[in-house]
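Re-run with default settings, no changes from the original entry. Doing this only to confirm the output is reproducible before filing.
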Amino acid sequence: MNMRKQLVFVVLSLIAFGFAITSDANTYIVGDNSGWDISTNLDTWEQGKKFVVGDVLVFQYASTDSVCEVGQESFRTCNTTNVINCFSDGNTSIPLTSPGERYFFCGNRLYCYSGMKLDVIVERNQSDIAEAPLSSVPETESGGSKNNNPSTIVPSGVKSIYSESNLVSMGLLGFWGVLISIV
């Protein structure tokens, strides 16, 4: 009976490892090489990108700047007093965890007025749609105001949050878990 439990554990570990390897998540460096900066044309950067649940936005910026997530009205008016979350660490990763429109701007109101702001439409992940029953998929989805046709996703020098080193670490942890359960 003990051997059966070990076999189940090994199979479940391999399945979990397989899901980690096949993740559809992408990491986007906002502004690419220019980063989150007043001189970056964020509208041009965003063109042609398709953001889906599971993707991550990485904001890289100077210590004098910040990135704040806000609601639609605050975004439209650059209202810096009503923020959802604000970061100033210079390297902020924000996971896109649900479909819908997300709004970001620099906490410096003048920079926001000058265009240092970004709104992204997050779509359902295609693997999530494929797994959902037909009755739960809405007939129409909000397309928002942006053109989000798929294209090049991440510059070649950028690594996904599911990098090879993370996968190797997860594999080693799974291996050690199997060894510990056997002993």
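Confidence is low (pLDDT under 50) at residues 14-22, 134-169. The radius of gyration is 20 Å.
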